[in-house]
Amino acid sequence: MPKKKGQKKKANNQALADFTLNDCANASKPVLKVKKSVTTEAVISELSWDEINEDELDIVEEVDVNGTKSIVFKKKRNHSRTETEDVDSRPGNVYPEIIWYLISWYIKPEDIGYFARINKATYSITKRESFWRTLYKRHCQYHPKLPDRLCLENSYKLYGLRQRVIRALYHTYDVFVKRVLQQAAHDSQPHQLVKRRCVNVWYCKGSTHWSVYFKFKKLQPMKRIEMNKNVDFIEELGRIDANPDEDTQVLQVTCQNFYEVPPLMGMTLSSVSVVLSQRFRHRRLHLGFNTGDHNVSRNILPECSVVLDTVINFYVFDWWHPKYPHFDNPLPLNVMDDESVPVLKKDFFTVCKGDL
Fold first, then answer.
1. What's the CA gap between 263 and 284, in Å, rounded?
2. Which GO terms describe its biological process (predicted)?
3. Is the pLDDT of residue 17 over 60?
4. Which of 75, 108, 126 corresponds to the end of one domain?
């Protein structure tokens, strides 16, 4: 039979209380009569399941004073207003930027990231020269452990100021120094360098060993670092947040003997393996390289394999680490393209084998 409109409208304004275990088996006292849950909103008490309109009602579980649970149907609230409108309508205060600037004097170095994410004003403060100069004076100035290359007392250079202050904090600030000591207690993981591009290789001779350095940079295929010709060169020199070593790590391998490494600039590290050497006194490091990041896979053999035997130890350093081999920050070039063609030719290793 067709439903009557009057019954449906009347049913939406009544209550419905389900019979639960708390009303019988789990009841603390014998229940002779089940009480209906009473709510201030419109509820449905005498409505069959086929008459429930899901578009107008929500299923809500309620707990009364006695601890009994019941499932009731309530009308849905009107969610037509967007979240942005709700945020704009909330009461709040907008503080001037000078207040945030005064608060920035008391921000700890490890909390700078949280401070910069509060609002636009705090983010712009972390881009100022005065912010990093004040941070340097509080924690680094005239510190006995600060190396001379990171002293800023007589330096008025703005390019890369943020990078130099952060590097100085890892020499003087106790929290950052403890982080470095904790990382040194654990073995370095060269496997985290996979899918990074080699940008430089060099050697360093010690008293009883040789050190080989591999500098890797994180690949950014969707982001090309290219300066627009309309950008003023003077403005680029004033970039406080400039960091040429961003997303760069250095692998230091200390060997007992010297091993010649071919030019690997532009190639991508595809595989890393560490095994014991033949006499079980040292370790042997295998590095596999490919010419492109799309060729990096476990199922694809590397185009070039570099084997370093008699390895004493190896370390992975980030750009802020005190032992990271830093050079002077070069001036920004007109075009810096990380997607340039690799320097190493495809037939390099075949030619070398023919020369032997």
1. 20
2. regulation of protein stability
3. no
4. 75
Instruction: Give me the percent of the chain exceeding a pLDDT of 90.
Output: 20
What does the alpha-carbon distance between residue 312 and residue 189 come to, in Å, rounded to a whole number? 15
Burial 154-190, CB ≥16 within 10 A → b, else e: eeeeebbbbbbbbbbbbbbbeebeeeeeeeeeeebeb
Report yes or no: 73 and 59 within 8 Å, Cβ to Cβ: yes
Amino acid at 223: K
- Separate counts of helices (H) and strands (E) for the chain: 10, 8
Pair 63, 101 in one domain: no
Question: Which among 133, 153, 183 is the end of a domain?
Answer: 183
Q: Where are the alpha helices (DSSP H) in the chain?
A: 5-11, 83-89, 97-103, 112-116, 120-125, 129-139, 161-172, 174-185, 233-237, 348-355
Instruction: At 26, list the tokens.
Output: 């789990």
**Gap between the Cα atoms of 26 and 68, Å rounded:** 10
Q: Is the dihedral of CA 298, 299, 305, 308 positive or negative?
A: positive
Query: Span 42-58, mean pLDDT?
Result: 58
Report the 10 Å Cβ neighbour count for 283: 18
Residue 353 pLDDT > 70:
no
> In this structure, are residues 127 and 115 in contact, taking their beta carbons and an 8 Å threshold?
no
Does position 44 have pLDDT exceeding 60, yes or no? no
The answer for residues whose C-beta is within 8 angstroms of residue 27's C-beta and 6 or more apart is none
- pLDDT grade for 14, boundaries at 50, 70 and 90: very low
Instruction: Judge if 267 and 200 occupy the same domain.
Output: yes
Residue ranges making up the domain that contains 107: 93-183
Distance of CA 276 to the CA centre of its chain: 34
223 and 112: one domain?
Answer: no
Angle at 238 between CA 236 and CA 243, to 5 degrees: 75
Task: Pick the range with the lowest mean pLDDT from 119-133, 164-178, 206-220.
Answer: 206-220
Q: How far is the C-alpha of 342 from the C-alpha of 268, rounded, in Å?
A: 9
pLDDT of the residue at 229: 52
